[in-house]
Amino acid sequence: MTNEQMLDEIREANLSYLMLAQTLIRQDREQALFRLGISEDTATMLALLTPAQVMKIAGGNQLLCRFRMEDDIVWGLLTNHGKSATASDSVKRLHASILMAGRHQEAA
């Protein structure tokens, strides 16, 4: 992958993220705050962006979103370390969601 291709991928990811964020915020603000891990102020700013502003921001060379799962425990719960699917997978995902929700509360 060339540097230009990578930059194109970043721009596309940024545009997709911003459009998704705006849609989530407009449909269900509280869910958007939780799912995106953003503050009220950020949600307000994202919701008010015009299409031209979205395109301009998305066109940068920095990825706008990031993984919120910086914890080995959460990654372990989500990936199951390559083990086959079991009945407890939904419990593990629920546990991971609870951990992530706690991080959202800390950020807010």
Mind explaining what this structure looks like?
The structure is a single chain. With 108 residues, this protein is mostly helical. It folds into two domains: 1-66, Flagellar transcriptional activator FlhD (Flagellar transcriptional activator fold, Orthogonal Bundle), CATH 1.10.4000; 68-108, no CATH class. The protein is 71% helix and 0% strand. It is built from six helices and no strands. The protein has helices at 3-27, 29-36, 40-48, 51-58, 72-79, 89-107. α1 (3-27) runs antiparallel to α2 (29-36), α1 packs antiparallel against α4 and α5 runs antiparallel to α6 (89-107). The mean pLDDT is 82.
Class of the largest domain, according to the CATH hierarchy?
Mainly Alpha
The major β-sheet equals: none
Number of strands: 0
Task: Kindly estimate the percentage of residues that lie in beta strands according to DSSP.
Answer: under 5%
- List SSEs in N-to-C order: HHHHHH
- Find the structural class using helix and strand composition: mainly alpha
CATH superfamily grouping of the largest domain? Flagellar transcriptional activator FlhD
Helicity, as a percent range: over 70%
Shape from CA axes? flat
Oligomer: single chain
Compute the average pLDDT: 82
In short:
The chain is an all-alpha fold and 108 residues long.
